[in-house]
Amino acid sequence: MACASGLFNPTASGAGGRFFPFVGVYGSGSRFSPGVSKRIFCASTAHGAEKLYASESKSPRLVTGGCKLIGCGSAVPSLQISNDDLSKIVDTNDEWIAVRTGIRNRRILSGKDSLIGLAVDASKKALEMAAVDPNDVDLVLLCTSTPEDLFGSAPQIPRALGCKNNPLAFDITAACSGFILGLFSASCYIRGAGLKNVLVIGADALSRHVDWTDRGTCILFGDGAGAVLLQACDSEENGIFSFDLHSDGDGQRHLNALSKIQGRVDECGTNGSLLSALPKGSSYSFIGMNGKEVFRFALSVVPQSIEVALGKAGLTNSSIDWLLLHQANQRIIDGVASRLTLPSERVISNLENYGNTSAASIPLALDEAVRSGKVREGHTIAAAGFGAGLTWGSAILRWG
Can 246 be counted among the known catalytic residues? Predict the structure, then answer.
């Protein structure tokens, strides 16, 4: 088992007071403790790459404090599939699905829809809300387990947004925990590398990896995208308080979509032929899940992870304005809320309309809650993701 503690723990004054982040710079021998003033300058060059730059490289920036969420957006495919629709292809019905999962509808990629298209639409909305020009984006993180290119889809997003400064963009693969890990990575880049604006996107199309004849899994998943803009700020305005992140590879057997190598015989091949020993192609199996074990896993680790993250932030359960969990199953959401003694009116859930959208579920639900006026500036959010790997993690955030 591996874990990563929240690097950015507030002092005893808590989330509402002055915030001095703990920053560890690994490999350099430098380590900065809370309350100790240090300066970090960041700059980079690439030999022969001058022609890629639309303008002169930005000057190194002084890292002074925290970061905050200032924009969000989301997008879903146009095709909606209801429980009644699924009952026509597998042995199920609306009541059976709704009682066990809380899901009644889901959106599925079809026709001209694409995962990149959804991610770009969500990103545009987040940038518009944040009033940030695409050319001012320093980094794009695409949290997805279903890229449209084996080598990653993230670079296509700044291209589609029209970013002229060629910001770095790369994928993060951590399934349903991906968005939380994306937030963690973004906060590290802002605090440790001097970046100002980081776009974090959660986007997945698990419908491509579902066995639509298996009623145990096909009822659960939908496609979608959500994005947030994380921006550097002074320590007094910091809105990213703490993280608690973990993984346990032993749990892979409970939730996976394993790679399949086609045509591989053995090390020597048939009749000693090298050609016959080489793989003829590869693909992935359908999503396989032991629902009962995943349910137990989530109810066991998620409340504990949130409480650990709250402790790092100097907060308690009563400080939470909103509980925002990965939208996997309504019984899991209700169970975690109950263990944290949080009433249902302080829980964000849109699972009924979209199903499990993997890395997209948290930012998609956040965007709807913000745009509806439910989540307002200054609200404290306890967010948690959990899923394949197995991975899980929590973040304590303030909106705006």
Answer: no
